[in-house]
Design brief:
By secondary structure, the protein is mainly α. It has one domain. Strands 1-2 form a two-stranded antiparallel sheet. Helix 2 packs across helix 6.
Length: 220
């Protein structure tokens, strides 16, 4: 995510298409697949971690609070591409629904609900293929006008299904609420950053922009 945003800032804000001999092409198939793969992995891990949380409602409200701040900040920065329902909005709503409905359910119930979400996504996509949408008030469900743009957009259809699949996985492999690794892992950079992923998500883009601006690679 961090490396992708570095490339995005260099390409879109700095007009730099190559760096150290490496081409920056955000529309390449490789980057598009990688972006969706890692986003999906991130959401699956969030679903798994929700099965281990002491308070999903509190986590959801915390994420939604940060999401509102991101919406406000991006609207000030660029109203035409503001983030109305990005990945934090999606995760906040997903965790809230999970905490209210699925927290006590069995793994098969989460998996069945995920299948329903995926089915609705496909059905809606087919049904709306030739139906023009002239509004954006259903954007949390993936329905937007053809002119809608956003810096970050993760509708509940299909991503809530990905989250529920992660929850089903968590309820299965972590049914005893115990680590699958018997030996305690040493403290490393990876597990330290893992415990502060939300903070990293919030501050990484301002830090990247500041570094690139000071180094003269981009100008606002």
């Amino acid at each position: 995510m961090v490396f992708y945003h570095v490339g995005y800032d260099l390409s879109e804000l700095g007009g730099i298409k190559t760096l150290l001999g490496i081409e920056i092409n955000l529309s390449s198939i490789f980057l598009l697949v990688a972006q969706n793969f890692f986003a999906g992995l991130f959401i699956i891990l969030c679903g798994i971690s929700s099965t281990l949380s002491r308070s999903n409602i509190r986590r959801a409200l915390k994420l939604l609070g940060v999401a509102v701040i991101i919406t406000a900040a991006t609207y000030i920065y660029n109203p035409s591409s503001a983030i109305h329902f990005g990945i934090l909005h999606c995760l906040g709503v997903s965790i809230l629904i999970y905490g209210l409905i699925f927290e006590k359910s069995k793994p098969w119930a989460c998996l069945a609900a995920a299948a329903v979400v995926f089915g609705l996504t496909v059905a809606l996509s087919l049904f709306m293929r030739n139906v023009p949408v002239r509004f954006n008030w259903l954007l949390p469900f993936g329905l937007t006008s053809h002119t809608y743009t956003s810096l970050d957009y993760f509708p509940l259809l299909p991503w809530f299904g990905v989250y529920l699949a992660g929850a089903a996985l968590g309820k299965s492999i972590y049914a005893r609420k115990q680590s699958l690794i018997a030996k305690r892992l040493p403290e490393t950079f990876i597990n330290t950053t893992g415990r502060h992923s939300l903070l990293i998500y919030i501050v990484h883009q301002p830090v990247i922009l500041a570094v690139l601006y000071v180094s003269g690679l981009i100008r606002f």
